[in-house]
Amino acid sequence: MPVGRRVAYWRGRRRLSQQVFADRLGKSKSWVDKVERGVRSLDRVSTLHDIAAVLRIDAAVLLGREVQPAEVTGRGEGVERIRVALSRYDIPLGRPAVRRPVLPAVELARQVAHAWTTFQHARYPQVTELLPGLLADAGRTFVGEPVAGRAPLVEAYRITASLLVKLGDPSLAWLAVDRAMNVATGDRTLVAAAAVQLGQVLRTGGQSRGATSAMLTAAYRIAPPVVEFGLPPELSLCGTLLVQAALAAASHGDARTTADLLDEAATLAARVDDGHDHHRTGFGPTAVDVARAAAAVELGDAAEAVTCHDTAVRRDGWRWLPAEHRAAHLIDVARAHLHADDPARAGRVLIEADRIAPAEIRHRPAGRDVLARVARDPTAPTPLIHLAVALGVG
Question: Which pTM value belongs to this model?
Fold first, then answer.
């Protein structure tokens, strides 16, 4: 696109008339018109920078240098490597083992824990690189040590499913979580843990009613007979599954069930308290407040979503939630502000999300979609405009 047409495009995005734009530049309307039609060239760097300053964009954008970063291009390649790893059946087919030692279950568990931590810090490109090898190692360790290797294999599949949901591939995530459920069968704790990702996958895949039913079944299966005597790990799993059921109910517009399930989860959260991460759930009172905000967004109640957000961030537990969890929540809050026709506040929330976990916007389709909607507004913060252009979502 010629430079003049880019000027016209961004002037339109900023909702500036040619006259107003010319006045801000100290030029005539005729000069602006000739530049935009390509009759007059922009051959002075200082003029380019003046135009960019008025339009609140980088001068490089006017020159057509907004190339997608390599990290965005590589996302699809990374998912494809995970797809290949999930499609291999080396052990049942008796294929020769790769030239790497079989990891002891203890070492495998350490590597799985590292992968979980990396995911919770929202370092999605690094997790994408780790998973193909981790899945292969976990499968081979499980064959050699079926008892000790079972939990790490389930956890490796859980991480894979969580990542693929983030990256917008629910069908491949479904394969990973199905593997997790199959390996976990017979162990109620592992089944409950894998069911958390099952709920995410079903909701993302549009199976919200099925998700509600499955999550309730899993939750009440792990629930202690007497809540007062329940241990924090099992209460965390039960409460997280109730949250998943509530979010699924919100997805199909069942406000009453959503509220009831979140209230039930809040009762369990009060017994667990904040600052824990049993079974990688991050469950506690703050997590329930965050879920209330997400449910309100799904139900179209922007005011309630913002109120729940304000409650969550005032808790000490807010800073203890994983970066991935906090940034994902902020994207939901930005959606709420957009629903309330307040793109300025949505932009400020997105900037905070980008500070906490940049990959939530750069690599997650849901985050990129909200960014694109905010960036279309003429009052959008300049850093978000630049980011949207760089990611090709402006």
Answer: 0.82
